[in-house]
């Protein structure tokens, strides 16, 4: 399954929470691709912009989570990534929920603000290294 013992030990040293964040990021990116396809081929023109915005944010942050979570060794970095996940779920999920279920968009600014804060916390942790 693994090509080398070094690869095995590297994978085994990633904490469970970091693996879960990385997996959540990959799933988020996959859902973003599906949402983008839906927006491009099914959604009415008025909704396309909102759904594409949701897809872009979900994809970018999903890829970031998948890439950064396995190397996030300190608690502060993992907390920042968890906040990033929550923020993108509130923001992108809120845009999608508004379209699919007619949900309110009043929480979207909180999701966006949480993403901004999470990136700043991650940057602060990176400077501490």
Give me the secondary-structure topology.
Layout: H1 5-12, H2 16-41, H3 45-68, H4 75-101, H5 108-128
Helix pairs in contact: 2-3, 2-4, 3-4, 4-5
Could you characterize what this model shows?
It is a single chain. The protein is mostly helical and about 130 residues long. The protein has one domain (about 5-129). The chain has helices at about 5-10, 15-40, 45-70, 75-100, 110-129. The chain is elongated. The N and C termini lie far apart (about 35 Å).
In short:
This protein has 5 helices and no strands. With 129 residues, the protein is mainly alpha-helical. The protein is elongated.
Summary keywords:
0% strand; disordered N terminus; mainly alpha; single chain; elongated
Rounded average pLDDT? 91
Note the beta-strand portion.
under 5%
Taken from the alpha-carbon principal axes, the silhouette is: elongated
The end-to-end distance, rounded to whole angstroms, is 33 Å
Report Rg. 16 Å
Contiguous low-pLDDT stretches (5 residues minimum) are 1-9
Structural class: mainly alpha
Biggest β-sheet, characterized? Answer: none
Total tally of structural domains: 1
Q: What order do the SSEs take from the amino end to the carboxyl end, as H and E?
A: HHHHH
Number of helices: 5
């Amino acid at each position: 399954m693994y090509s080398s013992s070094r690869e095995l030990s590297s994978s085994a040293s990633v904490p469970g929470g970091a693996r879960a964040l990385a997996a959540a990021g990959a799933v988020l990116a996959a859902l973003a691709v599906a949402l983008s396809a839906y927006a491009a081929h099914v959604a009415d023109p008025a909704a396309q912009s909102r759904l594409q915005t949701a897809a872009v944010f979900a994809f970018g942050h999903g890829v970031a989570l998948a890439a950064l979570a396995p190397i996030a060794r300190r608690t502060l970095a993992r907390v920042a990534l968890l906040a990033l996940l929550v923020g993108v779920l509130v923001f992108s999920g809120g845009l999608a929920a508004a379209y699919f279920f007619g949900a309110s968009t009043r929480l979207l600014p909180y999701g966006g603000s949480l993403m901004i804060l999470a990136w700043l916390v991650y940057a602060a942790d990176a400077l501490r290294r």
